[in-house]
Fold these 2 entries.
Entry 1:
Amino acid sequence: MSQNWTGKSLGSAFFQNLLGFFIKYGGRYMAYFILYFVVIFYTLLPSVRNKASFYLKRRFPEAGSLKLLIHTYKLNLTFGKILTDRAILGIRGESEVISSEADKRLCRDLLAKGKGLIILTAHCGCWQAAMSSFDFLPEEKYVIYRRSRHDVDKHAHELSGKDSPVKFIDPAGFAGGSIEIFAALQKKAIVCQMGDRTFGDKAHSAEADFLGGKIGVPFGIYRIAAETQTPIAIIFFPYKGKGRIDSVISDVFYAQNRGGRTPADYLKEAEKFVQSLQKFTLEYPYQFFNYYDMWK
Amino acid sequence: MIATSLDDVKKVLSENLSMEGIDLASLKEDSPLFSGLGLDSLDAIELVIILRKNYDIIIENMDEGRKVFETLGTLRAYIETNRKK
């Protein structure tokens, strides 16, 4: 199960810029209005339908061709709205994270233990905008993130011209970014990892059941967490419409140090993450944005 | 400074990393760590852990790490200079 995602944006730079224009001069609802038609165009593209079908056929196994087309439209529309809202955050600064006080308190309590915090999330909901807006925690924030050269989507800070509120660690960089991850945790910072994307070959991923099949998820972060005794919080950021982002802490745990360094040593942690992810997709079926065959 | 030989370092690495098929005796000070020993990102995690556990060394930044992990010799020298146990 080697890396088979590309990081290529679903939409073109032209449509990104077009939406940017309507956001700037027409506002959110003008951009949404245009989006409905743009998404119809994309949904009718066979390549886009194919990319969406890997997930949707597993999430809606009973769906026929027509229903699958509708599901694809809804998935793409939600994705489009989230990207639009992210652009609005960058261009107009309008966004609202509606985390519960209990979740905020839990994050603060975990950080108070003095070991930093690892946030595991996935390519679902408003993961990008959420990390930019996660400002109720004053600690330094690092995101383990590899930007594909085919990715034309602009982050909110790039559109606003401001400095990024988070620092990025490239998992494909020197030593897989591990030195920077350890150094960040040493500083009691927050490190955020996409738990659903693997880098490198099969030896770097643990397999867990997701929507009726096995997917590979990275386990190196659990090895680091076990060694540093850093708490892990699985947090998803469901989109609540019109620039509103919720944050849901799905699970909090410590990775066990079993002494090994194989996928089997961290299978339990990987399964916890994937179970949380599956629960999220059941609750928010149109907010899971891995447009490739994760089960291959 | 605690004297640290190349053999000491090789022994620790071979005990903690998957180095099957590598002739330890042939490794020299100038052997590159990643391209030469075939180490990958998971091994890099183990290397950082080895430094913490065995020598109480924490590498603070990427530039420093890049230099330390260049060759077996740079790693040995860094351990020798910075180890606390």
Entry 2:
Amino acid sequence: MSTTWLPCGEYHQSYKEDHAWFQTTFIKGKMILLGLILFIFIPRFADSYWLSVCNQIGYTVLGALGVQLLIGFCGQITLGHAAFVAVGAYTSTLLILEFPWPRFILDIGLAYPISILIAAVVAGLWSVIFGLPSARVKGFYLILTTMAAQFITVDFIITQYISQIGGRGQAFSLPPGTIKIGPWIIDSDLKVYYMMLVLTILCITALANLLRSRAGRAWVAIRDNDISAEVMGINIIKYKLLAFFVAGFIGGIAGAFWISNLAAISPEHFQWFWSLWLVGVILIGGVGSIHGAIFGSVFMVVVLELLQLAVIPLADEYPKLLMDFLFIKEATFGLAICAFMIFEPNGLAYRWWQVKNYFNLWPFSY
Amino acid sequence: MELLLMTLTTGIMVGGIYALVALGWVLIYKCSGVLNLAMGELTLIGAYVSLSFYSMGIPFLLSLLFSLIIGLILGILTERIFLDKLIGEPVLTVIMVTVGLSFFFKGTVEFIWGVDTKVFQPPVFPLEPIKIGPLVIGKVYLWSFVAALILLVVFVSFFKYTRWGLAMQATADDEMAALSLGVSARFVYAAAWAIAFMAAGVGGTLLGNINGLNISVGYLGLLVLPAVVLGGLNSIPGAIVGGIVIGVLENFSGAYLDKYFPGGVKEIAPFVFMAVFLLFKPYGLWGWERIERV
């Protein structure tokens, strides 16, 4: 079923048309407008602070896309996605710091892009390893194994062993100038912003394309009823593992991207908290749509920034509020999840869909 | 040999505390079908409340009692405000509400009490250890174990012999039948949360006595998960056995595996064990097997 409203009397005549990217001129215009805003308007008018907020949103979107794929499209609930983001970040960092790159690759600035790709593949494979139990268990038990993935990867392997490589102790710091794509050294919020934009758009496009292919339909079938899916001839183990691979791949890209924005990476950035955060983001945004991952990220990041801005004027009278803002943030996030689950279980994407419908059907909404 | 015995006894004693908290978890799951990921934060709240009372100069047992009462109230409130509206929603929704609750509780606890380690001052239990033959056991461990055992007995006899406990058992067994016989399901859910809050609070207080109290005591709430998976999600004896086994396992891996894998092997071992165990026996030792039909 198409999700686009067409003018009266026009119908899709083939499956291909039904799933085309730009079905009406209006949609095309809308996307061009969005592109203009993202690429020209925001970099031009936002200051460094809001650019860094945008970068944070982009990072959250990249992380949440994988979770959305696993939970929203494939029905495999995961509470350990930060582990795969961490694998991506650490692979990329280690490749940049320790790998003996040939001189000419460094000169043309390919080291970082290559390391992003390798990091994504490594994170994807790592994710498949922990997706293997999904062949046998599901539901709550799968949640437990993904939690185990989180603790084994981040709290044990990375903290105890990977962090010791090179004798640096806890944190890896990337010397300035090592993060370089082609001729550009990624050193300002603006450059990180453009990189974030390109990566996010690539990932979203890739995921959306996957979702309208055979693999995407298989995932949705598995989510809706895995036994029926198997009966219909879908190799569920293969497609579940594929889902884990793609989710880990995007998570790896997220991690490898984020090191460009961090002065030093340490296991602290990838705690279990962050896994839960990503799941919370897609629940707030709406499970089962790519819009959901984006809306959720924008909502969570912006709301918390606004909360922080609101707290600052109060800080003179109650300095504890600003000092312990991290904890307020946690508590707010928790309450937001609870409130959304209770009052708006379909998330923001559903609201968006309703608003769109209202205008599409206006003035006769029946 | 001494090391073996020491590890075993310590493991069993710490495991007793885990068993107590696991009991609360299983109770919620049995009665209302909620898979609770906020158990660690429940332990934190109980522990901090009793610590606050204790540092005001109130005797330990009395402050424990106060924290039980506050746990009771908070448990009922939590159930009424958050969980009551979610009966019959999908698993993920309910789990994520408990995750949201855990964030909320954790943030609140950190905001009120800070993140520094706090100790029970003056120490509740005498510091000098007891010697039995070659064994040296800290009194804290012994008393914690005894307290956990007493509470386990109290809770189990509550289910077996009181009217309310029987109502809870009936609901857990067959909700529809219990409802038609006049058992109030809402009462049972509230009671389950209240008991879980209380059990977790006592567990947290005891653990806080052993190592001092900070946010990492909430990690206990995650250790409960391997314990209940081992015993089977809906089996009370399973929770007790699972808690003790996980306690022993944790201490053994700390004592013997640390040489080979330096670092946090003690914290990770229960989860590795759980992941492997799930592959072979996902329904635990005494859990009900679910047969799926299309």
